[in-house]
Amino acid sequence: MKPIRNSAKAIIIYDGKVLLTKNKDQEGFFYLFPGGGQEHGEQLSDALKRECMEEIGCHIRVHDLAYVREYIGKNHQFAEWDADVHQVEFYFVAELDERIPPTEQEAQIFAGTNPDEYQVGVEWVALSALDHIRVYPAQLIPKLQGRGEKDVYMGDTN
Q1: Cα 46–chain centre separation
Q2: pTM of the predicted protein model
């Protein structure tokens, strides 16, 4: 059995758009919030800064903790290969530190130092368009759009 893994994720919103990593699998494109696993001895905020550099190629400023999500793989659609995964994700409000956020064209060519296996790019996605694409976790979409409950703890969700 694998140990529980902590993960820090960034919610970077600018001008009605959220910055997401664009990924591709056998079903097509899907989007994730930038961030990833915490290493032993690393603060969550430092993990998030490192992961954002790896995935989106930008320094960020980390602000408040906004949401906490658990993912227990055996309970979801990817149980076939994720059954032994239990991850706790901490979603922080963040902003790009280096300059004004890039245009959509620039975001397409962001170069992280160590992108995830399925990552094919970075994209600014309009908050209003999130309902029309595959985003994980889907439960975060209505919260970002200003609808639904504002509970910080989202529980075990995909």
Answers
A1: 15
A2: 0.90
